[in-house]
Design a protein that fits this description.
The complex is a heterodimer of chains A (283) and B (278).
Chain A lengths: L1 H7 L12 H14 L11 H7 L1 H7 L4 H10 L12 H15 L8 H36 L6 H28 L3 H6 L1 H25 L7 E4 L2 E4 H8 L3 H15 L5 H17 L4
Antiparallel strand pairs in A: 1-2
Helix pairs in contact in A: 2-3, 2-6, 6-7, 6-8, 7-8, 7-10
Chain B lengths: L5 H13 L13 H5 L2 H12 L2 H14 L5 E2 L2 E2 L3 H14 L4 H26 L1 H12 L3 H30 L1 H9 L3 H13 L1 H12 L6 H12 L5 H19 L5 H21 L1
Antiparallel strand pairs in B: 1-2
Helix pairs in contact in B: 1-3, 1-5, 1-8, 3-4, 3-5, 4-5, 4-6, 5-6, 5-8, 6-10, 7-8
Classes of the chains: A mainly alpha (283), B mainly alpha (278).
């Protein structure tokens, strides 16, 4: 295949030079800093691609404004994924665009097909790893280190995530670029599916623990216990600790997933339900 | 009016821009939204500008507990964490420095003002996107820079910094009113709501990770490890990693392999029966 041949050559079939290390870092950093700079519901991270590839376009298409225009326009469409793990898509796109610019056999529709195919799966796995596992776990550690108002807690979190975030971003980008189209097999292939399913299980368990540890809901109701009245909460704790938070989170999940309510609608429902139950003296 | 508040209030406004999800100053989301935007970090920064680090961190920890499962997927979010962090903690530091007040203010600001500003901005920024698209059509490098970065970022700065500055600088009266005039049942409702709000972020996460209903058992396992067994998050991450590895090992025998395995077993059986004959 022409793709693999090109990667071994110093220049393309049209004699143009390949991307240097510095070129790659420029694209990586441009996308890393500005992926959401003009974020809207319509395009989200879309225009960050056009902006990130401006130096690329000027390197290869300085003498061909029409090709440069096609590049900028095709990278001004809707795009949205988890932006740190999602750098793997940016890496693949870089290798495809390089192939196109060097006169390889990749078609000009290919980069956008890849973007559209991969952004969903990567957003799912990226969000569950980063927002579901890494960030809450590091925050929990930071919060426990902040006992008594110690700045150690926030400092730990700043350093820990300050390193992890960019490292994930860099590795993802370089992996995507190195593997090129082959990265698709790495992402949606059979063994990748197994690894992602396993990560998913890890995510689900951590999310379960997150629910048990961070939702606070206790009832103030009393129930008759023989001659006396006892707090219902004591009985509940004996049967199933954190039962009310569990019911709350399952109800929320049901509204979001089964009923397809928007988060804003769920906030309104929660607020009304909590207000009514508070006024009735349940909470 | 208290002029000593001018500098800290201004800084809270600037921080609220730097920690915003759409801010492009601090490595995109990596150092902005995920670091500057977290209430835990906001507590430290607010503590520094108000000259009381310990109390700032305590407010930060209290607010972080409510927003630990803050989530943004596909542009939808369950609460505007940056307005909540710097508006809520900033105003609390400017007044009572009480963590409970910080939580109440953060929930109020994040769920009302913050979400209104966020959703309005997300709808209106299509205007800038159209400009960037036109610039791309015209091969206009500078135009893309202006419409993708300069104009939206300047707007974002004002949409974030100005309201947060005003809240922190002029919010004293709101806090007094909240403490003196608002009936206790309302502050009670807000505090109960603050306890339940993480359920929304966690519900959104469950929506992403749980692909079929049977996987709810993993969720419940994680839940009881904390609620019944009282393990820490770090311990649970390791147990979860073990379970994930077992799932990975067992998933290898799926699809095509059962047939081959059945054949192999049949062979083994045959051999065994053969041996039996001797």
């Amino acid at each position: 295949m022409a793709t693999t041949d090109l990667t071994k050559q110093a220049t393309g079939t049209n004699g143009k030079p390949r991307l240097t290390n510095k070129d790659l870092n420029t694209i990586w950093l441009r996308w890393a800093f500005t992926h959401l700079a003009s974020m809207s519901y319509e395009k989200l991270q879309g225009h960050a691609y056009a902006w990130s590839y401006i130096p690329f376009a000027n390197k290869y298409y300085a003498d061909d404004p029409e090709a440069k225009r096609r590049l900028l326009v095709r990278h001004s469409v809707f795009f949205n994924t988890e932006p740190q793990t999602g750098q793997i898509i940016n890496g693949i796109v870089t290798s495809l665009e390089e192939n196109i610019a060097l006169g390889g056999e990749v078609s000009e529709e290919m980069p956008n097909n890849i973007k559209a195919t991969l952004m969903g799966p990567l957003a799912g796995i990226g969000d569950s790893i980063i927002q579901g596992i890494i960030v809450p776990t590091l925050l929990s550690i930071g919060m426990s280190l902040a006992n008594g108002g110690s700045p150690l807690g926030p400092l730990f979190y700043i350093v820990a995530y300050g390193i992890i975030g960019p490292v994930i971003s860099f590795i993802s980008y370089r992996t995507g670029y190195k593997l090129g189209v082959g990265a698709i097999d790495v992402i949606v292939g059979e063994s990748a599916r197994r690894i992602m399913d396993a990560f998913n299980v890890l995510g689900i368990m951590v999310v379960g623990a997150l629910a048990a540890g961070n939702i606070a809901l206790t009832t103030t109701l009393n129930i008759p216990f023989g001659e006396e009245w006892q707090p219902l909460q004591t009985t509940l704790d004996g049967v199933f600790p954190a039962l009310l938070p569990l019911i709350a989170v399952l109800a929320t999940w049901w509204m979001l997933g089964k009923k397809q309510f928007s988060p804003t609608k769920v906030i309104v429902i929660l607020t009304i339900a909590i207000s009514v139950l508070c006024l009735l003296g349940v909470f | 009016m208290n002029l000593a508040l001018l500098f800290p209030a201004l800084m809270c406004g600037v921080f609220c821009y730097l920690g915003a999800i759409e801010s492009c100053c601090l490595f995109g989301m990596s150092w902005g939204y995920y670091v500057m935007g977290r209430p835990l970090v906001a507590g430290l920064l607010c503590g520094l500008v108000f000259g009381d680090v310990a109390q700032g961190v305590l407010c930060g920890v209290a607010v972080q507990a409510v927003f630990i499962a803050n989530l943004s997927t596909g542009g939808a979010t369950n609460s505007e964490i940056t307005y909540a962090s710097y508006g809520g903690i900033g105003l609390a530091m400017a007044t009572t420095k009480d963590p409970a007040i910080a939580v109440t203010l953060s929930v109020l600001i994040g769920q009302t003002l913050g979400l209104i500003f966020y959703n309005t901005r997300m709808a209106l920024y299509s205007f800038f996107n159209n400009g960037a698209s036109r610039a791309a059509e015209n091969n206009d490098d500078r135009g893309i820079t202006l419409w993708h970065i300069v104009y939206p970022q300047v707007c974002t700065f004002f949409i974030r910094a100005v309201p947060v500055f005003l809240i922190v600088f002029f919010g004293q009266g709101v806090v007094d009113a909240l403490l003196n005039n608002v009936p206790e049942v309302v502050t009670h409702i807000i505090s109960v709501l603050g306890g339940v709000l993480p359920a929304l972020g966690i519900g959104m996460l469950m929506n992403i990770v749980i692909k079929d209903k049977m996987q709810l058992i993993f969720f419940l396992a994680g839940f009881v490890l904390l609620s019944f067994a009282g393990l820490s998050m770090v311990a649970i991450v390791f147990i979860a990693a073990l379970v994930a590895y077992l799932v990975f090992l067992s998933s290898g025998k799926s699809s095509a392999e059962p047939v081959a395995e059945a054949a192999a077993q049949a062979d083994a059986h045959a051999v065994y029966e053969d041996e039996d004959l001797f």
